[in-house]
Each structure stands twice: as structure tokens, then as C-alpha cells.
């Protein structure tokens, strides 16, 4: 059932069937390999993100996009495959309708049982196109906040394997985070320990 959590923030549970989840997981395992593979992100303030990340299309590092892994092995970022862009466009059609954006970035986050993501806004993209989020593996608590502060009011939503969430319009610049993972809740058939989240974005940048 489609739930609008806030204006422009739409949750569509169980959007990916088991076969699609497996395909996407296989692709993520491939993308995680070096060069330009999975890495730990360090913030300028000396912090370390607990979710590890790999990027396609454009490489994100705090707080900009580059064409190479500027803060890692220096390799060119992996290409953003056209089929993933089509999946993103279908996600937008199935949630909002409206213009289907030309996605050119995927950020893939891997969470083990103890990983978290603090409240933040995604404002490094030079486009306000909706962000598409796909979840695989363990269930998490996703915290959707407001545009003004990183604190209350917020809404906690459980995101499960196969769920789609789209963030557009006034929700595009809302604070959000992942305060916890529920270990061992992944579908048994998937073969994933932990959680994986794929976000599709429009960079607004020219290559
Ligand atoms: C709302 N990822 O990659 S997905 C991120 O589950 C990120 O890995 C979380 O926050 C995760 O930046 C949350 C939901 C999400 C993603 C991007 C958004 C919500 C968003 C961008 C704008 C507003
Ligand atoms: Fe985010």
C-alpha cells in the first residue's frame, strides 16, 4: 500500500519482487569490487561513516561529486548503467507520476548490524529531481524529519527488503537518517547479512 509520509515523500512497500531483489544484490556485489569499490567515508571533521559506500556515475565524497574516487584509490568512478536509470524512472512513475528524471548517480550504502546514518540533508546535487531509494536485506528504522532542523518533529518508518521510497518536492531537502538496523530480518532466500540501500539521483552536473 502506498503511503505518503510527508508531501513529496512516498513509501511503496514490496516494490521489488524476490527475483528483482536478487538481481540487484548481485549487481551491488559486483559494484563493491575494486577498483573504485566499497569504501569507508571519512568526514572533514574527523568522523567515520559506519555505513560503507560505493558510487556509480559520480563519486560522492564529503561534500561534493567527482569523476574519480578522489578520497580513495583515485580510480575513475564506475559507470551508471542505463537499466538502473530505467528502474529509477519507473519508480517515479509508480509513485508520483510526473516527469521521469534522467538519473546519473547511484549511491549504494552497506550497513552491518551496528551501522547507522546520522540525520543529514542531501544537498550536493544541483538538481531538485526526486531521489529514489531501494532497500535490500535487513529491515531498518528510517527517520524522516523536517527541512528546518535535524531534530523533532520526525516520523520513523520501517524499511524492508524490496521497499521503494521516493523523495521529491518539498521532501527533497528534508533531514533524514537511519537510527537502527534490525539484524537477522533479511528474507532468508536473499543471502544477505545486513542491509543495503541504493539511492538514485540526478547530479545536475555535466560530464
Ligand atoms: C530524503 N541513505 O544515501 S535512504 C543517503 O537508507 C541516505 O541508506 C539512507 O540517506 C539509507 O543519503 C536513507 C532514504 C533517503 C535517501 C535520500 C534522500 C531519503 C532522502 C534524499 C532527500 C530526502
Ligand atoms: Fe541521505
UniProtKB/TrEMBL annotation:
Residues 102-204 form the Fe2OG dioxygenase domain. Its cofactor is Fe(2+). Keywords: Dioxygenase, Iron, Metal-binding, Oxidoreductase. The keyword Electron transport does not apply. Signal peptide: none annotated. GO terms for molecular function: dioxygenase activity. This is Alpha-ketoglutarate-dependent dioxygenase AlkB family protein. It comes from Streptomyces tibetensis. The lineage of its organism: Bacteria, Bacillati, Actinomycetota, Actinomycetes, Kitasatosporales. The chain holds residues 9 to 215 of 244 of the full protein.
Amino acid at each position: 500500500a502506498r503511503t505518503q509520509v510527508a508531501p513529496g515523500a512516498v513509501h511503496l512497500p514490496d516494490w521489488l519482487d524476490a527475483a528483482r531483489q536478487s538481481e540487484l544484490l548481485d549487481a551491488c556485489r559486483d559494484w563493491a569490487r575494486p577498483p573504485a569499490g566499497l569504501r569507508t567515508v571519512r568526514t572533514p571533521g574527523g568522523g567515520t561513516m559506519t555505513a560503507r559506500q560505493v558510487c556509480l556515475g559520480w563519486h560522492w565524497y564529503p561534500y561534493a561529486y567527482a569523476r574519480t574516487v578522489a578520497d580513495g584509490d583515485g580510480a575513475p568512478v564506475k559507470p551508471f548503467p542505463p537499466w538502473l536509470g530505467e528502474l529509477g524512472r519507473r519508480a517515479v512513475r509508480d509513485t508520483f507520476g510526473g516527469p521521469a528524471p534522467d538519473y546519473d548517480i547511484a549511491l549504494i550504502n552497506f550497513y552491518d548490524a551496528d551501522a547507522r546514518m546520522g540525520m543529514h540533508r542531501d544537498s550536493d546535487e544541483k538538481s531538485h529531481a526526486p531521489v529514489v531509494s531501494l532497500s535490500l536485506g535487513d529491515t531498518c528504522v528510517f527517520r524522516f524529519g523536517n527541512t528546518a532542523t535535524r531534530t523533532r518533529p520526525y516520523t520513523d518508518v520501517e524499511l524492508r527488503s524490496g521497499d521503494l521510497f521516493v523523495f521529491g518536492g518539498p521532501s527533497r531537502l528534508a533531514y533524514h537518517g537511519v537510527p537502527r538496523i534490525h539484524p537477522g530480518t533479511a528474507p532468508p532466500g536473499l543471502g544477505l547479512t545486513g542491509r543495503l540501500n541504493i539511492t538514485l539521483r540526478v547530479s545536475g552536473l555535466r560530464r
